[in-house]
Each structure stands twice: as structure tokens, then as C-alpha cells.
Amino acid sequence: MRRNAFTMIELVLVIVVLGILAALAIPRLDRDLRQEAADTTLANIRYAQHFALQDDKQKFDNPKWQQRFWHLYFGTCEDKLFFAVGSDNDMNSSTNGRVAFDESALDPSNGKHLWAVDGTSCSGAYHTASEISPSVLIGKKYGVKTISHNGGCTNNYIGFDHLGRPYGDKFTNSKKPDNDGYMTSPCIFTFTLKKGDPFSIRIEPETGYAYVVGQEKI
């Protein structure tokens, strides 16, 4: 009786082809992870600027109103890097850009808060992880290990006024509307990953235009 089966040569050829495909796919997965981290961070910087353009935070009866600028800041929780988007609406003189849970923006993709808190727990003492958008945990989700800043930003946050103009620092503890911290040179955030090459996001002065360095037209 004749039986149909693969020959040893055919099996070896299939294994070789699968090995080649795997070798090509693994570097591609690394590049995709890096690009996804860059796209997510860039989108939320632009999201903060969008809020600033739509929601004028000016309060003529309070000289500290510039503390209310919409902004994005970076922090660390559970030894992992995160970002958050929000506005210090009650002007509690936060000097490091931090905002409260109820002052943070909502992720349009899932309705959860673009927020986390520094310390051992990313969700904070009074909020569960289910209330936090997983996209903010760029250290855990994408393997982003460190962030550095230079140029127009001297801290790990960037803010925008009602015209969408960027502020590198000092607006978070402003005591009078003197445009302190207004950016006059480009701000560059550089992100280092556990695996793969680093990437940088540049924010231009005056316009606040943000882009991934090397991908200016995207």
C-alpha cells in the first residue's frame, strides 16, 4: 500500500525557510516596538497642545493662572517610566508638573485617565490600575528605560498656552502671568530603550510643532 508523506529533504527545507522568516521578523518586531513608543508619546504631546488650544485656562482674577496650562510630564512608578497629560486646574503650586487624578485628560481610545503617580504604585493610593490608561506606561509596555531633555526644556515636562505655544518650565509655579518659561529654543526629549536604538522627539519654539527626529514629514 502506498502512503503519502513528506520526505526528509522537504522537512529540512521547510525548517530552513521558517528559520529565515524568523530571523527577518525578530529585528522587525524590535523596530515596531520602538516606533510604537515614539508614536504614542508624540501623539500625546500633540494631544496636550490640542487641549490647550481648545480650553483657554486664563483666569483674569488669579495671577497664578499660568499654572493651569495643559501639559505632559514624565515620571517613574514601579521603576518604570510613564507620562501623564493634565492641567493643574486648582493651581496648587506644583513645582514638578504633577497633576491630580481628576485633573488628568482621558485617553480617547478607552476613556481611561492619562495619568500615573510617582512611587511604588503606578495607580496611586486611591485609584486602581483599571482606571489608568495602559498607554501611559511606556516603560512597561514598550521597554523605554530612560529619558533625557535638552534645549528649551530643562525639566521632564512640556506645557502649552492658549495659542499652542510651548513652555519648557517655570509655568508650573508661576505667581504672575509673565510668560516665564516661554520656550525660545527647540526642546528635545531623548528616549533610551532596553532593546533597540533610542529615539528623540523635538518640539519647536513658537509653533509647538512636535515630531520624531528623522521623521519630520510624518
Describe this protein's structure.
The chain is of the alpha+beta class. It has one domain. It is built from two helices and eight strands; from the N terminus they run αββαββββββ. The chain has helices spanning 8-54, 138-142, and strands spanning 70-77, 80-87, 144-151, 157-160, 166-167, 187-193, 199-203, 210-212. It is elongated. It starts with 7 loop residues before the first helix and ends in a 6-residue tail after the last strand. The model has no long low-confidence stretch (mean pLDDT 89).
Assign the structural class, choosing from mainly alpha, mainly beta, alpha/beta, alpha+beta, or little secondary structure. alpha+beta
Q: Which strand order do you get reading across the main beta sheet?
A: 2-1-4-5
The helix/strand series, from N terminus to C terminus, equals HEEHEEEEEE
What general outline do the C-alpha atoms trace? elongated
Number of helices: 2
**Low-confidence blocks of residues:** none
Count of individual beta strands: 8
Cα Rg:
22 Å
Count of domain modules: 1
The largest pleated sheet is described as: 4 strands, antiparallel
